[in-house]
Design a protein that fits this description.
- The protein is an alpha+beta fold and about 150 residues long.
- About 35% of the residues lie in helices and about 20% in strands.
- The chain is built from 5 helices and 6 strands; from the N terminus they run αααββαββββα.
- The strands form 2 sheets. A 4-stranded antiparallel sheet has the order 3-4-5-6. It has a two-stranded antiparallel sheet with strand order 1-2.
- A hairpin with a 5-residue loop joins β3 and β4.
- The radius of gyration is 14 Å and the shape is globular.
Length: about 150
């Protein structure tokens, strides 16, 4: 992932560490992959390793640690909960966020396209071509979604 992107997130982490969950060991990320039976994109793994979860620009990104100032439940638990209700074609979705209307945001490995699945109106809404692109858009507040 681009160093500049991490530098910007690091600035926010240093200013408001309570908006992030905190670092996660590699072994816990491996366990999450095994539990969900997927291989996570390296950029998302790196985010979890460094920050655990957290608020990045206009996005709340789920991981494996609860942030003090934000609701950041485990992406594993959110993924499992949503998988029970999602249409069959999204049964492999990894949920990395939930918008203000309760719609899941995530990707379907091995495809790294990050999308919102709007249950009420639009259906599949492509947000970014990758998790890195999603972070970049979140930092510049260009996602156009509300948490």
């Amino acid at each position: 992932m681009k160093k500049e992107l991490f530098d910007k997130i690091d600035e926010r982490y240093e200013m408001i560490p309570e908006a992030f969950g905190g670092p996660v060991p590699e072994s816990e990320i491996d366990e999450a992959e095994e539990e969900l039976r997927v291989k996570l994109p390296e950029e998302y793994r790196e985010f979890i390793r460094r920050y655990g979860s957290g608020g990045v620009g206009d996005a709340v990104i789920l991981g494996l640690r609860q942030a003090e100032f934000l609701s950041t439940p485990s992406f594993v638990k959110e993924t499992e909960a949503f998988r029970n209700d999602l249409p069959k074609e999204y049964s492999n979705m990894i949920v990395i966020g939930v918008d203000g209307a309760g719609n899941p945001i995530g990707f379907q490995p091995p495809d790294q396209t990050t999308f919102l699945l709007d249950h009420n109106f639009e259906g599949y809404v492509k947000l970014a071509v990758s998790f890195e692109d999603y972070l970049s858009k979140a930092l510049s507040r260009k996602l156009g979604i509300h948490f």
